[in-house]
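Risk register update: the risk of archive-format incompatibility is retired. Evidence:
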Amino acid sequence: MLMKTIGIITIHKIYNYGSVFQAFALQYICEKMGFKVEIIDYNFPNSFHAENKYQSNCNSQSNEPIWIKILFAKALLCQHQRISSFVRRFQYLSPNQYSSPADLKEERPTYDIYITGSDQLWNPRFCNGDPAFMLHFAPDRALKISYAASFGTNVLPKDLEPLYKKLLNRYAYISVRENSGKKVMKDIIGMESMVVLDPTLLLNQDEWNKIATSKKQLKKKYILCYYLNYTFNSFPYADNLAAYMQKLTGYEIVRVARPPHKLFVPHTHYRIGASPEEFLALIRDAEMVLTTSFHGTAFAINFGKPVFTIVKDRMASDNRLVSLMENLGMEQQVLSIKDSFPTVDKFTYDVEKVQRRLEILRQESKQYLFNALHHG
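Archived output:
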């Protein structure tokens, strides 16, 4: 009996650790469930996303001084090359590459099952209401599923509602990544959905350790700082928080992913060019993680690390981070940039309790995916 085939569409090869990991993780889990899996090699961003009228006008850039950007240009290039290498080695891409929603319509990739993968694929601010991420190209009769897709907002633009309703109503199973997404599905689309874990959390520590480099990246104890700047500007709060925690713990600081805002900070190490495998090891071996990133938070939790997640506003429309922490009972580990710094007794949490809760949610999420894939 031939294995059924799955085509996953997601944001799978941009220069972002979380994006490449979530795509790999969903592919990995579907394979373990007995399917032949490909990630549809859809280029993002492309011309469809170039003029996005739904983009926020606020400037979220962190504004590193230009001389610091130049200083770290080589490290960033190295990081990008290593992420691209990871994609080539770990992701099974479709033989054809697609550069627009129209391309997918014209040369439709054929599978038994189509999955809209995780990440903010349904967020108009990022994807401009891209119909490709709502499987507009998939045949009507084909089984269509979403796994942990994210709207990244509480409110859809009114002019996009008809498109979303039309295309999402073709899905047999819909799951989302955050609690607000479930509300959007019910209020606007008129459909029930399930909140599931991001694909990266479906793999346990042992499975990620098979990918992570085994070598420790730093011999001393350290706080890992993973700050992204595409949603909001967390500075100077994030840097001041790191300095505060360093003073209280005596740990070194390690910075990954983005160039810093200032140099010559004592006891600080830069791993801007880290490969995905090294990035995993840096989180695994850290004493503590400070991050503005959803996937930085997810991996810290998965590895059982003390973590503080920095958000602009707990009540913001993009509440992916707050939603994850609430579902795990970790609200106290969320800091807004207006909050005072936590006292030392708040630096840790009940890791065993969270791991038990995480395992329950992991099994529920896997069961949802299994049931959806074996539909009919």
